[in-house]
Automatic annotation (TrEMBL):
Highest taxon listed in the record's lineage: Eukaryota
Protein name per its UniProtKB record: Uncharacterized protein LOC125178429
Domain (C-type lectin) ranges: 113-233
The species this protein was found in: Hyalella azteca (Amphipod)
Keyword Signal tagged: yes
Amino acid sequence: MLAALGALLCVCCSIEEGSAYTFRTFMGAEIAATAISSSAVVQRPCECRALCRDACVAVAIRRQPPRHFHCSFTDETVADATTNLTVPAPDSKVFYKRLVCLPGFTLVDNVGCIYVSTAALNFTAAAASCPSDSQLFTANFLIDFNAMRNYLKKTFVVPPNKFWIGLTRLGNSTTWKWFGGGTIEATHPSPYWNPRDPNENTDCAMLYFRPSTGFFYDVADTSCAGQMQFLCKQN
């Protein structure tokens, strides 16, 4: 019953979050067993966030093989990732309710608070220039990534467009790591990468929009020295 309600609420996630709150993310953490008020098993991570209503203050989400997600809810205040209400858990993330976006940020449905720069900088400078309490955009789940792409396709419609994101290559491998944790592989087919990428043997990634060449805010690799705008996500 609870999971069915979550599936229904997932359709309304953007309305719920956009009108009331967004979430602050703590990577690699789980709500301590003594602080859990309830739990549920759902099919999509957004269902966990949608079920965190009323007295719920935070929800921890971890993958439950083969195709489900486990949600742990708490009604106690989880002020930061070091509180005794959370415990380390590499495969889990805690989403803590946050009421407003910082000035200059826009609430993007199912993503969080996003800042779009006006300045064009290289990757290192862009990473250092995100406003306080934010970092270059990272996708905690595929649903976050797709929601970001959809927002950009509706908002920045004149090509070409490209934005730095918080994704870099690990050494000379095919593994790319998001800022703050989580990885994606540079293999195909991929829900992240354009079919032509990565192809430049570089270490930095962007979201690129150029429909005439088949890019619709797909991930593409490029030289870290390039100059472009950047996307920051509020922590």
